[in-house]
Structures are given as C-alpha cells and as structure tokens.
Amino acid sequence: MTALAAPPPPVREPAPDRTARRGRRRSGAGRTLRGGKLAYTFLGLAVLVSAFPFYWTLVAASRSNADLAKVPPALLPGPNLARNIQAVTEEADIGKALLNSLIVSGSITLGTVLCCTLAGFAFAKLRFRGRGALLAVTVGTMMIPPQLGVIPLFMLIAKLQWVNQLQAVILPGLVSAFGVFFMRQYLVQSLPDELIEAARVDGASTGRIFWSIVIPIARPGMAVLGLLTFMTAWNDFFWPVVALSSSEPTVQVALRQLGGGYVNDQSVIMAGTLLGTLPVLLVFGLLGRQIVGGIMQGAVKG
Amino acid sequence: MTLTAPTTTGPRAVSPPPALRRAWRKASPYAYLAPFFTLFAAFGLFPLLYTAFVSLYRVELQTPGEMEWRGLGNYTALLGDSYFWTALRNTFTIGVLSTVPQLVMALGLAHLLNYRLRGRTFFRTAMLLPYATSVAAATLVFAQLFGRDFGLVNVVLGLVGIDPVDWQTGTVASQVAVSTIVIWRWTGYNALIYLAGMQSIPRELYEAAEMDGASRWRQFWHVTLPGLRPTIVFTVVVSTIGATQLFGEPLLFEGSVSGGISHQYQTLGLYLYEQGWGFFHLGRAAAIAWVMFLLILLVVGANALIVRRRSRKEAGR
What we know:
The complex is a heterodimer.
Chain A: H1 18-27, H2 37-61, H3 65-68, H4 81-91, H5 94-125, H6 131-140, H7 147-159, H8 167-173, H9 177-190, H10 193-201, H11 206-235, H12 238-243, H13 251-262, H14 266-297
Chain B: H1 5-9, H2 18-54, E1 57-60, E2 63-69, H3 73-79, H4 82-113, H5 120-128, H6 135-145, H7 152-159, H8 171-199, H9 203-211, H10 216-227, H11 229-244, H12 248-254, H13 268-278, H14 282-316
Antiparallel strand pairs in B: 1-2
C-alpha cells in the first residue's frame, strides 16, 4: 500500500554496482568539464535554499512566539528550545509518537528488506512458471496511486478491528513492489549464475544458497533499500493519518495534531517539527552518500 | 510435510529420493515469493480491485459492513458537486505550478552538478536534504514562512517594497505557496535522477559536437536533452502521479480538510479524504479514487503518445 514514493525503477539500464560505475566513468561516459565560478554560485544558492527551512525550524523552535512576531524577526537561534520542547510534550504525546514511529519504521524496514530480497532473488535467479507475469503484475502496480486502495484497506482493518493499532500501518507497509524490483535488478547484476551453479553441483539446497551466497552478495543493495524504506516509512503521512488517531500516533500524525489548530504557538509547532525531523536527518547525515548513490542507481538512464 | 519426512526418518547421510528433490526444486521458487505475495495480495492487490466495487455502493464509515447498491450514483453525484470541479481544477493548476518549475530547475541543477566540481558529494547530498523531510514537517515550516502577518516571506517582500500577500486566502497566492512546498521537496531529487541520466550519455557525442563547432548551449540542446528523453518522460510521469495525489501539503497548510475557506486549494486527494473521513461517505471516496486513477492513465497515455510521435518525427528526418 505504501508504495515507495521514491526512486523510479531502473527501466532502461539495470542498477550497476559501485565498481561498474567507477569503471564506466573511466571508460568515458558523461562529461567532466570543470565547473566555473558561476556553477559554484548557483549550486551554493541551491544549497542555501535547500537548507534554510531546516535552519529556520531551529531558529523558530528556540525562540518565543513574541520573538517571531517582531519585524524584522529574529534570525539567530534563541534560548527557549528546552521550554518549547516541554510545551510540545504537554500538547501531544510526542515521546510515544517517536517510539511508535521507531517501531513502525523499524518493522517495516526489516520486513520489507527480507520479503523483497527473497522475492527479488526468486525473480532474478530462479526459473519457474509464471515468472514474467508475476513480475509484470508487481511492477505494474507501482504506477497505481496508493489512494486507489485506501478505502477497501480501511474497511479491511476496520473488520479486523485494527484501527488505531500499529499493525494497521506496519503490515500494508511491508508491500513494496519497488523493493522487489530494486532487489531483482541488484541481484541480476551482482550475483553471477556460475556461483549458484557451482553451489548446486556441490549439493547445496536453494535455501543454503540463499543464506550463504545470496545474502552476503545482496547486502549493499539491502542496505540501500533499507535506508530508503526507513525514510519513506518514517515520513509516510496519508495512511497513518487515516489508520491511526491522536491516542496512538506516529510522529507525522502528532505533527498534524500540533499544526491542526489545537496549538497556536508557532514556536511550539516548530519545536515539534524539529523533533519529528531530527531522527531522519540524523540517518541522512550519517548515510546521505549511500542514499544519493541508491537514488542515482535507481534512475532511468538514456 | 511429506517432503521433509524421508530425511527425518532415514539416517542423516541419505538424501531424499531424486523425484522428491526435483519436485521441491520446482516448488521452492514459490516459497521465496510467498511472503511478499501473501501481503501483496491482501494489502495491495485486493484493495486495488475492490475499490471499483465499493465505488458502486453506498458505504458509510461508521458501518462499513452495510453496503447498499447505488450503481453509478456516486459518480453522478460527483459530477453535480461543484467542490469536485473546484478540486479537479485546483489539482490541475497546482500540478502545473509545481511540476513545471521543479523539473526545469532540476534540469539546470543537474547540468551544473555534471561539471567536475570540488565537493561534488556535498552538493549532491545537500540538494537531497529536502527529500529526507516529511510532508508534515515541511508543510508546517512553510506555512509559518508564508504567514500573513509575521511570515518571513512577507517580511522579505516588504524589504523590496511589496505589500504583504495573504498566502492563505488568496486563490493564486495559496496555490503558489502549496506548490512551493512541493518544488522545495522534490527539485533536488529530480536533479539527481537527471544527473544519473546525463552521466550515461557517451562522451564521444559531445566530442563530435565540439568538433562540429557546437557551442556549450547547442551541445546541451542537441546532445544532452535528446539523450535524456527517457529520463525526462519518466520524471514527468512520476511527478504527475505525485501531483494528482497531493494530500499532506494542502491538508496541513492551515490544518483544515476543506483546503481553505472557499476550497481554494483543495486537491482531489484532500477532497477524497474529506468525503471519506470527514463526511463518512466511503463509497463516494472510492469513486473519487477511481477518477484520480483515470486521470493518471490519461496523462500517462498522452505522454506516451507525444513521445512516440516525437521519436517518429526524428527517425523520419
């Protein structure tokens, strides 16, 4: 249901692994003209525009509401961060929301990576009846908007009496057609058939092959898929808002509650926003390079 | 069960009879697919197909078990609802306002990122930063920046002598504000997609163009753009799908499900939510979902048509 609103499938060219990319650069695709001053200026400007809202969140979250209402407004962080954060915890159960988000995103990430690696391996390297058709159905559904399934999905979880329970968000989140396709492309590229043949000759079962050959080779791909899945799950809004309420919120649902007119204090809203954004920014700060690589790998090329 | 029985009863060294092994080898691929497809069938495929069925019934949120046949009633009711038409128009205008500048800027940024730069990874990562935020967080921040009285945007506009704009009640102004959030979040992402496309264009093409005396600009126009065509088509389709589903930005821009006092920025996604979870008409909401889907098919189809015609024209040259 939560189709990754993320990278498009590699349609034209399968995802190359890192060494292949490096090799290609040497072999001369792409251009390597040096950037001039103008290029740096424009890029610097773009970075500023990208980063400013984050900076502003910090400024507004650490000021009083009165500071924000001044003209011109304060442009440097102030001393009120702790107080505003405390106000957030009084307005919304942000601690519980953070924990819920961690549980939801963590389970979705683990489950998705596992399910998608299993299925991706089968599609990439095993031969069976209906492979093409099943893959086509999987990939085809990536084009369909998630809203299309939301109403019956809601009726389903209502029937199971799961409304306002975390599994209502977790289980549909494990379905990632993109993930299957991503892992398939990764394994087609980086898992040589000969390796599997050799293991078979040695008498290894498919399960054994999966465990001791496929998983180690798939690990970098699994890591990238995990990162993207975690970010998407953490940031998912539509389905959690529908399936959960303010008594069992994820961070995004709690933010909606803060912004939904219950609180009028802008600096408190911004403090909540800061808390909701920080974890994923942390992940991004540590592993941004891999995320960038993953997105570029997943891109459609000419 | 029967498959594993021989191994457990016999001595360990004896493997199962070859016939059984072969049977298992034939069946085992399905075992690898099972976890995904079980979930996919229950939470992905079934809801997708069932929506069409639900859209033909009167179903209320409080009593989802009771369904009353309405035929095409939900659809005709939509056609008679002026808010549906407003939402349709808003989805279109916000879609254009957000998608076009976003993709054009992304193309420009990708071109710059394709130069040999110091701090290349830094630029790429920083540009993707907005993608890492949630709709909710980004929208709350921008709603604050676009505040009428003390919002930073109006303060800056005031510095250059422009009167404060009411970003929430004005139709055009509010739609521009909502589009800005979308543009901010997705431009860097699309730039990276374009960059990946640019890097796979063979360098020889540029060298040949240079030998023919083509300027940088002409190289961009005649080598880069045609080489990027599949990527561009792809981003157009993806962005269009995203724009059709726009939901969080208009919901949180000021926190109401109606998309402003006069529904001036209510999108189809928000309209669906209002009908289903505001007014409890799940059947009606399902009909809206189908309209959104048909809209996407239309756009994707039109896109494919344009691309095919352009390539045919070029092939004929």
